[in-house]
Specification:
single chain
């Protein structure tokens, strides 16, 4: 009864605790939105830079080409074409400082390509006419060198078939005629026209000569024929005879010194007998 009378403890009740977290960090959805905007702005900046650079290239090409048409490229274009090109270049310069300032990258690139399509042929003509003469002269020098080798009587070419050596000389004569005609043709062609023969074609003739002549000149000399079997046997017999004679001489030299002591002993005995 006393235990029952003891006071009971306070009652306990469990309740779920709600926790709310607050942070200054950006949500995943917002992060993706801003990331997309950043990429878009980066791409816009890149296009702006590339457009500005391309506009500068167009301006530079326009000014340079106009200057060159009065200078180093003047001989490679007819007067009428030159006047028309100069007029178009002036129009392009006006466009650059007006509409071109706000033009898109693709539009500027198209206009630059159009100018280069007209200017590049002039630069190509200049290169061909300036270098073709030197290439022909170089070809003639090599023709002379291989002509001399084809007619050479040097011993190191004595093993090469005569007809093959003559074919080198014939090839040189053929290419020499081509080189002479080419030089005349280039000299008689107005420089405002495309070169009738390109430097690449002249270089191809050079390679043709080398590839034809060099393998013939590099023909290896035939190896010396081995000695006949009979001669080899005779040489072996002769060698054996020499060895046998050498052995006999050696034996004779070994026996000769033994006779000297015997003579000396006999001489001593004779002296003793004389004393007696």
């Amino acid at each position: 009864e006393e235990e029952k009378k003891k006071k009971k403890g306070p009652k306990k009740k469990r309740t779920d605790l709600k926790v709310e977290a607050h942070t200054n960090a950006m949500s995943t959805e917002d992060f993706k939105v801003y990331e997309s905007k950043e990429a878009e702005m980066t791409n816009t900046d890149r296009v702006v830079r590339e457009t500005a650079a391309l506009r500068n290239d167009l301006e530079q090409y326009t000014l340079d080409m106009r200057s060159r048409l009065r200078g180093d490229l003047k001989a490679y274009i007819t007067p009428a074409d030159c006047d028309k090109f100069m007029e178009d270049l002036q129009t392009m310069e006006d466009w650059i400082y007006d509409e071109g300032y706000d033009a898109q990258k693709s539009t500027i690139k198209k206009k630059l390509d159009e100018l280069k399509a007209r200017g590049s042929p002039l630069e190509r003509r200049q290169y061909e006419y300036k270098n073709s003469k030197e290439r022909v002269e170089r070809l003639k020098v090599n023709i002379g060198k291989y002509r001399q080798l084809g007619a050479s009587t040097d011993k190191k070419y004595a093993h090469i078939d005569k007809a093959k050596m003559e074919s080198i000389v014939k090839k040189c004569e053929e290419l020499d005629t081509w080189a002479t005609n080419t030089a005349v043709l280039i000299g008689n062609t107005p420089q405002h026209n495309d070169a009738p023969v390109t430097c690449a074609e002249i270089k191809a003739k050079q390679d043709e000569l080398v590839n034809f002549a060099q393998p013939i000149l590099n023909t290896p000399a035939p190896k010396p024929k081995p000695a006949p079997k009979e001669k080899k046997e005779e040489a072996k017999k002769e060698e054996a005879k020499k060895d046998e004679a050498a052995k006999k001489d050696e034996a004779k030299m070994e026996t000769e010194p033994t006779a000297e002591p015997a003579k000396a002993e006999a001489k001593k005995d004779d002296e003793e007998m004389d004393l007696d």
